[in-house]
Every structure is written in structure tokens, then in C-alpha cells.
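Technical annex B. To support the medicinal chemistry partners, we prepared a structural model of the target in complex with guanosine-5'-triphosphate, based solely on the information shown next.
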Amino acid sequence: MKKVSKLQRQIFTITTALALFIILLLGISISSILYTQGIDGAETALRNKNRSVTTLILGYFAPLRQAIEYSTSPDSGIDHSRFEEHDTRQAILNLFEVLQKTIPNVNYIFSGYEDGSLLINNYTPPADFNAVDRPWYQAALDMHPLISDGMPYQDIISKEWLVSFGKTLLNANEEIIGVLSIDAGMDTIIEALSVKDQHYPTVYNYVLNTQGMVLIHPDEGMRDTFHQGIYAHLPSADVTRGSLNYRDEGRQFLAHFDRIETLGWIVVTEVNLADIRQPIMKTIIFTLLMIVTGSLLATWLMSFVLSRHIIAPLKKLQNRVQEITEGRGDKISEYSFPNNEIGMISEAIEQLTENALIHKNVELKIKNLQLDALSNTDQLTEIANRRKMLEIIQAEINRFDRHKTPFSIFMFDVDHFKRVNDTFGHDLGDQVLIDIARVVRSSIRRTDTLGRWGGEEFILICPETELNTAHNVAEKVCSAIRHHAFPANLSITVSLGLSEFRSGHTLETILAEIDQKMYRAKQNGRNRIEI
Ligand SMILES: Nc1nc2c(ncn2[C@@H]2O[C@H](COP(=O)(O)OP(=O)(O)OP(=O)(O)O)[C@@H](O)[C@H]2O)c(=O)[nH]1
């Protein structure tokens, strides 16, 4: 698995935190908007439903009420005070028949009189029938001189739901002589009340009378009961319609009501709030899920894009700098930095690193050279030391082995040097050794190498030099020392052993040989050359 970089993790954490913050803000505002919209929508649906049901009821009963008004008024041409006369009775029955046929939904139209008699077509009342005792008669008396409220009731025989309206009949002296009433079928109204709303199927309608008694309700059990829940929350009678929110038996309801004054009905359209909340909550949860998914996807996409455009070049830069610092800087990088600020900065850093490294390398080379010089040079005389001389001799031996190039080696030791030290001190002794090195170097070829072998012993190597020539060089060296003006007018001589390297010699044997020759020169009186 690809390792996630620290920067990548930081970008991811920041963008995710930002996304969660946005989700929280969006979530709160969208939830509250959706909730308010949902409730508003339900309220509008309740209002519209209620309006349509009320309009239907009004439209349904209007012709019935007109028929009552007409039949009880002098316009009908009937004098009801003469109801006992045969012709009048016949005229009344004829009028009833016409109205029954022409007005839809009319079941019966009839009139009852003070004497208990009833005028009606196609109906035979029971033997003990007394019109004055019937509820419709009483209702009309109660509402005199207006038409009584619509009073729903169930027919005893057919079990059909009916509604009746009535109005008092008056004589010339404006005295009540009877009641004219219409019975109408309620099927159309009950059907209209029970039609479900397409968007809010749990919405239902019912009808109360002005005293809060349930006249019509989809739940049969509620009929003729007092609806305390809503009645307690209904505003005063002068408010004809409106919305209300009430709690009943632990449940909360949203309702819209409309008073139909001519009928004495209150048409209520309501819904249990829990039924409305459920789809709203579903919509909110679905929307929130979409927001969360969308925001997180956008965040991850943003992290990915940022990674591509920021982290990838930085990672490349990191690798490139590492390559350079590990000495693999000459490797051609397959990656080209992007053409933006990051790319420019990356290239600048790459260049800086390269320059810094080149500078460091130069410094290192100088230091190495200095170190090399120090390890190969004698501190006092500044000529090659024993280690370096061994290297040079070995190189000459190798050349000899390959090309048979001749070379000679000298070893010389300062005579009675101890006395110099003892007499003039160590510092002066040092100065003598420095002078010897300088004098000898100036009297030999550039290709010859002088080195200090240790103490007051020196060694000289002369490449491409045979014994005879080497002997001359030795003479020249000894003479130069002898004639040099040393401090304190000291007269310095050396004893010198000299050999030409020949086949059969090795590094060890040639060194041993010249050492012995030098020793012999000492033995033979010093200030001399032994070949
Ligand atoms: N000042 C000085 N003295 C040195 C140095 N290296 C060796 N010596 C001295 O050189 C002297 C060498 O003495 P010896 O080995 O007895 O030889 P010599 O006195 O030169 O006598 P012969 O070699 O027999 O002629 C010693 O006193 C060393 O201390 C140096 O770097 N500086």
C-alpha cells in the first residue's frame, strides 16, 4: 500500500473537518427548511381540502334550501293555512312531486302540521305517527324563522344516511301552523368527505355541529360524540375559518376548519402530525445522506487533486534533493515539475541543493588534498615523509619491473648531529635540518625526490638515473651541504650510502643495502659516500 505522506494526511484532515463543518451548517439549515416546507405543504393541503369539501357541501345544499324557501313563501301560490282543504293538500302534494323530481338528491319533501298530520308522496307513516313529535319539526321550531340546521340521521327502515332541513309554515297572522321539511341523501357528501388526498393520504374530514358534537366522521364510533379535543381549541364563532394545532390524548393534530353558518356545521380537515412528520423526516434523512455523501466525495476529490498538484511535486523534489545529496544528482530525472509556482520553487530548490553540494564537494576536495599533503609531508622540513617515500620507491620499483627503467636511491645521515643539539640547542638543530632539506632540494633535479627518513636521516630517489650519474649527484649533494653557511657558522657534513636498483632487489633489500652502506660510511670516517 502506498504510504500516506504527512502533508497528505494534514490536507485530508483539514478538508474533512471543513466538509464536516459545511455538512453541519447545511444539515441544520436544510433540515429546518425542509421541515418548515413540509409542515407548510401539509397546512396548504389541509386548507385546500377543507375548502373543496366545504364548497361541495354548500353547492350540494343550496338548491335544497332554495326549494324550502320557495315552498314556504307566497311565491309558491299555496296557502298552507288551508292545509285541511282537499284542493290545497293536492296542490301541496303536486308541488312536492315536482320538486322531488327536478332537484337531485331529494329523498322526500313533506310538511307536518299542528294537528300531527303529514303531507308526503309515496310514504305511509306508522299508525301512531305525530308530525309535531318528530325531530325535524322541533328543529324547525327552534330555528324559526330561519331554516333549521342540517341534521343528519339514519333512516329507520333503509339505514340510509339522510339529512333534513325544515322551516316553519305561517298563516296570515304570522302564526306557526306547521313545518315544511326536506330529506336529502348524504351519500355524495360522505363520499366527498372520505376522498383521500393524493399527497397526504392520512388526511381526513369530519363535520361537527356548533356545540362540538360529531355529525359525520369516517370513524363510525365518533358519531354523535362530543369532540372535546378540537372543540376546546376552536376560536370564537365569529372566526369562520382557520388553522389550528391541538393535542388530544397525547397525540398532536394539525387541522383546518370552516364554519358553514347556514347549516350550523363546522367542517374539519385534519391530520395526525406524526403521520406528516414521518415522510418529512424521511425526506430530511435522504437529503442529509445526499449532502454527507456529496460533501465527503467532494472532499476526497479535493484531497486527491491537491495531492496531485501539490504533494506529488513536493515528493519528487524531496526525492530529487535526496538523489543529489546522496551523490546521484547526475541521474536524469524522469519527472518534470509543474508549470506553476510550486514547479518554480521546486526547480529553484533543486538548483540551490546542487550548488550547495558542488560547493561542499570543492571544499571537501581541498580538505582532502590538505589532509593528503599533511599525511605525506614532514612537518619540520616540509619535504616528503617516510610514508610518502616508501610509496614513491614502490612506484619506481613497479616502473622498473615493467620497463626496466633504472633508478638510484641514496640515504644520508648528518654527522655528529647530537653535538649540534647538545651545544646549540634543539631549535638550532631543527634549523640545520630545515637548511639541509632546502639546500639538497635546490641542488637536485625536479624529478628527484628528497624525503626525511627519520631523525637526522634523509633519503633521495633519482628516477632514470644509473649508478655513475647517481654518484655525481651524491657528490653534488654532499658538497652543497658542506659549503652551505649554516647558523652559528656550523660546518655540517653527511655520510651517504648509494645504490642503483637492480633485478633481484626488493623494497626491503635495497633499503637494507643503502642503510648498510651509510653505516659503512660512518664507520669509514664520516663525510663520505659509499657505493
Ligand atoms: N634538533 C633535532 N635533533 C634531532 C632530530 N631528530 C633527531 N635528532 C637528534 O639527532 C641526534 C642523532 O644522534 P646520533 O644518532 O647519536 O648520531 P650523531 O650524533 O649524528 O652521530 P653520528 O651519526 O654517529 O655521526 C640525536 O641527538 C637526536 O636527538 C630533530 O628533528 N631535530
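Notes passed to the chemistry partners:
Residues 1-312 form a domain with the Beta-Lactamase fold (CATH 3.30.450.20).
The longest strand covers residues 161-170.
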